[in-house]
Design brief:
Belongs to the DSD1 family. The chain has 11 helices and 17 strands. By secondary structure, the chain is of the alpha/beta class. Helix 3 packs parallel to helix 4. The radius of gyration is 22 Å and the shape is elongated. The two termini are about 40 Å apart. The relative contact order is 0.16.
């Protein structure tokens, strides 16, 4: 595979993004959304940058999704005026911040508990305002959300008329797709993802309650669940870069991966071992996503795919290599990470390159915004 970095020197470790590959990924998903007649509301947790958010909006995204209020605040400052916070907002301090955002931009959030719904309702009603909400449905990840079908429908009916909130839809995230071992299992998870919402919506409709948005997420499933009639919105995140987890799942070939870590060999203490300056604080410790371990090592070294990044300490990557590999201290290596999202969150900036070399530097503005 062609290397992203063209020169012999760099202040490593660096997170590189190939502009051409990024644009191809953005265009591809935008074209899918348009052809499927669904709204594109990408999750910004993957890239956390104003520049990529703008590129997504230019390609038809109606807004963005984020995980935390801190991410929404950073994006709102930079002109993003339609944001879904796909996370339960619990606690008075966070409700105050949510209100401040709602006074500036169009913002929505999720609910999956009566306690959370009542707190949200009481707070916004006291301010003579209403906040748009989706009910979170658990399509199989077993994280947040009500069970699809009767439980989710009963909950939705119970909270629909609460003051201070406006029910706009149902939402789910099929993150358990990252554990799929075969393509047919991935397809089943994706179809179940859509059906979990559509079946719940059908029960609501029978009870005289309609919701306008049926929102699905997850990059591995989005082109299946997003094509099911009745789905109105998709929220993929990882698609902007892709990574080795997506390659393992068969979502894309390795050539579609737009993000790499540039690292330098700092030691070769044994013929079969090298050490790089990209450790856990650069590569993260994921061997997959959502706690699923589906790949070996901690990323793929582009020029030496048989080498294995066996272990990481904070600032060291320990790599098993063949004694015949001509790797020397000072060499630059490129790594496609297992999971791009935490890698970006660990970086101050993304170094944007194209086929001619360095193109730009993009600040990771939402880095560490976990509140």
């Amino acid at each position: 595979m062609e290397r992203f970095w063209k020169t012999d020197s760099a202040d490593t470790p660096m997170v590189l993004v190939h502009y051409g590959k990024l644009i191809a990924n953005l265009d591809d998903m935008a074209e899918f959304a348009e052809a499927s007649r669904v709204k594109l509301r990408p999750h910004a947790k993957t890239h956390k940058t104003a520049e990529i958010t703008q590129l997504q909006r230019e390609r038809g995204a109606i807004g963005i999704t984020v995980a935390k209020i801190g991410e929404a605040e950073e994006m709102a400052i930079r002109g993003c005026a339609n944001i879904l916070i796909a996370y339960p907002i619990i606690g008075h301090s966070k409700l105050k911040r949510l209100l401040a955002l709602a006074e500036q931009i169009q913002v929505s959030t999720i609910i999956d508990s009566l306690e959370g719904a009542q707190a949200l309702s009481s707070f916004f009603a006291s301010q003579n305002r209403r906040i748009d909400v989706y009910v979170k449905v658990d399509s199989g990840l077993q994280r947040c959300g009500k069970k699809p079908g009767q439980e989710a429908a009963d909950f939705t009916r119970r909270i629909a008329d609460l003051p201070g909130i406006r029910l706009i839809g149902l939402l789910t995230h099929a993150g358990h797709a990252y554990g799929a071992s075969e393509p047919h299992l991935l397809e089943k998870i994706a179809r179940d993802e859509a059906r979990s919402l559509l079946d719940t919506a059908a029960l609501l409709n029978q009870a005289g309650l309609q919701v306008s948005e049926i929102s699905v997420g997850s990059t591995p499933t989005v082109k299946i669940s997003g094509s099911v009639p009745g789905v109105t919105e998709i929220r993929p995140g990882n698609y902007v870069f892709y990574d080795m987890t997506q390659v393992r799942l068969g979502v894309v070939p390795m050539e579609r991966c737009a993000l790499r870590i540039l690292t330098q060999v700092v030691s070769r203490p044994a013929p079969d071992r090298i050490v790089t300056d990209a450790g856990a604080k650069t590569l993260a410790l994921d061997r997959g996503a959502h706690g699923v371990e589906g790949v070996s090592g901690y990323g793929l070294i582009v020029d030496y795919p048989a080498a294995e990044i066996e272990r990481l300490s904070e600032e060291h990557g320990v790599v098993k290599v063949s004694p015949a590999d001509p790797i020397q201290v000072g060499d630059l290596l490129e790594i496609i990470p297992n999971h791009a999202c935490p890698v970006v969150n660990l970086a101050d900036e993304l170094i944007v390159v194209d086929d001619r070399g360095l193109r730009d530097r993009w600040q990771v503005i939402a880095r560490g915004k976990v509140k």
